[in-house]
């Protein structure tokens, strides 16, 4: 029961026998006095004012200890009764539908994420972005739209942010105004509070897909063609080292998850991430996650620390969720020291830009390597770069599959196995086709070893003969 301070209401729910005295502590609030000032006069009162007034009284009277002991369904039932009792006692003009909506809102506020809870339950939404209490945007079908979701004020939004941080043992306030966290369902959250965020608390949620993404679904969504899917499957099965490159929200993690499905279940995989997002299906997996420093400036564990530790855990493959800094050097070392088939993602606009970014990151590691030495490491370590892009029609599309084929002087040689060529735009959809290179890959010996060289050639043949326009599904 929800215990509340003050004298009891004597209201009885129709059709039910009176509760025993001990159980009647569910409601213990004084009657709502219509004469108590609420910010508006009785004549000026509107339905919205009545709801706001009832919400405030419910929150004031709620016993947090009793609430914590109830299941969500039981809590909703109890709050619906409480709202009905208080509305009746205070002679508030609120109909049954509004009472139920208010009760559901209160439950979301107490044990969920307030106004965001319905958005989290909507499977058509991929991202949720809150820019202060009055502006909330979501991504549907690859496009951003504003939705009529509002918080009462800065304090309400801040409270939701702090609840998210507390759920993962972290703290967010003026002293520590930024945090990366993960919801119980795996969704990734970033929070930044004032004074760093000038227009109020900012909250970004990358929702965790409930359905495991595979190549069939990516093809159905218009992200690639069947021959490309076959080539990527061969790359994963042949233990090639793969970098997935793209901008924010281009689908890098989704692609990494899809390719990981072709890793041999007998292999031992170590994943390293800032916030765990990967959904690998193999049985022998160890997931490592970074830890930020405490308020005292101690205890930080970086991606680089975890990559180094992963090398001591007898991995067959190391999967780094995203390379952002000096850990790029350790990743290249892992790829060059027997951990074939390792994968990672990086933010870059093209496959050649991805190599330049990795080179710059290795230089950040302060290992004193020359540019020529770093490029030599890159050519030895990385076999394939997969480039992704979110186009203006909202489709996240694979635009390049590039082989690192060697080095000549100071220039790294690259071969675009598949490259998307834009042909036009019609009826709100991008039109184009993939150009295919038939050049023999430098890793053909690996393909022969895994008995996949013939399958590689057949996939390229099918890709080359697909002359029809490639258009995403509606």
What does this structure look like?
With 474 residues, the chain is of the alpha/beta class. Helices cover 34% and strands 21% of the residues. The chain has helices at 47-61, 64-68, 72-89, 96-111, 117-121, 154-167, 215-220, 226-237, 252-260, 303-310, 327-336, 351-364, 371-381, 444-449, 453-465, and strands at residues 125-131, 136-140, 143-147, 178-182, 188-192, 202-206, 242-246, 269-273, 285-289, 317-320, 343-347, 384-390, 396-408, 411-426, 429-436. A 9-stranded mixed β-sheet has the order 9-8-10-11-7-12-13-14-15, sandwiched between helices. It has a 6-stranded antiparallel β-sheet with strand order 3-2-1-6-5-4, with helices on one face. Helix 1 (47-61) crosses helix 3 (72-89) and helix 12 (351-364) packs across helix 13 (371-381). The radius of gyration is 28 Å and the shape is elongated.
What is the count of DSSP helices, taking H or I runs of 4+ residues?
A: 15
> Helix and strand succession?
HHHHHEEEHEEEHHEHEEHEHEHHEEEEHH
Q: Give the strand tally.
A: 15
Round the Cα radius of gyration to an integer and report it: 28 Å
Distance between the termini: 50 Å
Beta-strand percent range = 15-25%
Largest sheet: 9 strands, mixed
Average pLDDT number: 82
Structural class: alpha/beta
Name the helicity range.
Answer: 25-40%
Shape annotation:
elongated
**How is the largest sheet built, in terms of strand order?**
9-8-10-11-7-12-13-14-15
């Amino acid at each position: 029961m929800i215990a509340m301070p003050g004298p009891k209401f004597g209201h009885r729910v129709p059709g039910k026998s009176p509760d025993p005295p001990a159980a009647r502590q569910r409601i213990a609030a004084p009657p709502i006095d219509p004469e108590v000032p609420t910010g508006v006069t009785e004549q000026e009162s509107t339905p919205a004012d009545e709801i706001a007034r009832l919400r405030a009284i419910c929150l004031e009277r709620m016993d947090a200890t009793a609430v914590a002991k109830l299941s969500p369904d039981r809590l909703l039932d109890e709050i619906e009764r409480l709202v009905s009792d208080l509305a009746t006692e205070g002679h508030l003009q609120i109909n049954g539908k509004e009472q139920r909506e208010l009760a559901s809102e209160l439950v979301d506020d107490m044990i969920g994420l307030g106004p965001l809870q319905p958005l989290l339950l909507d499977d058509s939404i991929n991202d949720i972005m809150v820019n202060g209490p009055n502006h909330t945007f979501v991504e549907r079908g690859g496009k951003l739209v504003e939705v009529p979701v509002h918080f009462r004020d800065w304090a309400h939004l801040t409270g939701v942010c702090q609840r998210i941080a507390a759920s993962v043992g972290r703290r967010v306030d003026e002293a520590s105004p930024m945090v990366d966290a993960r919801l119980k369902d795996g969704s990734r959250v970033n929070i930044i509070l004032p004074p760093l965020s000038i227009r109020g608390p900012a909250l970004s949620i990358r929702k965790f897909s409930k359905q495991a993404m595979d190549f069939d679904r990516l093809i159905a969504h218009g992200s690639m063609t069947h021959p490309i899917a076959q080539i990527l499957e061969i790359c994963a099965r042949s233990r090639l080292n793969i970098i997935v490159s793209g901008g924010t929200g281009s689908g890098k993690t989704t692609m990494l998850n899809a390719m990981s499905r072709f890793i041999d279940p007998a292999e031992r995989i170590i994943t390293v991430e800032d916030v765990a997002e990967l959904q690998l299906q193999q049985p022998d997996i160890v997931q490592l996650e970074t830890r930020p420093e405490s308020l005292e400036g101690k205890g930080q564990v970086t991606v680089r620390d975890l990559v180094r530790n992963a090398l001591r855990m007898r991995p067959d493959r190391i999967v780094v969720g995203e390379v952002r800094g000096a850990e790029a050097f350790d990743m290249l070392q892992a790829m060059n020291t027997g951990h074939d088939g390792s994968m990672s993602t990086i933010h870059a606009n093209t496959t050649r830009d991805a190599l330049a970014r990795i080179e710059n990151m290795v230089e950040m590691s302060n290992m004193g390597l020359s540019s020529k030495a770093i490029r030599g490491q890159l050519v030895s370590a990385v076999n394939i770069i997969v480039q992704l892009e979110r186009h203006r029609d909202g489709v996240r599309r694979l635009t390049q599959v590039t082989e690192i084929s060697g080095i000549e002087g100071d220039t790294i040689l690259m071969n675009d196995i598949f490259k998307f060529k834009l042909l036009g735009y019609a009826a709100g959809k991008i039109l184009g086709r993939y150009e295919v290179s038939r050049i023999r890959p430098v890793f053909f010996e690996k393909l022969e070893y895994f008995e996949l060289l013939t399958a590689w050639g057949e996939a390229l043949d099918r890709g080359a003969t697909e002359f029809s326009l490639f258009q995403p599904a509606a």
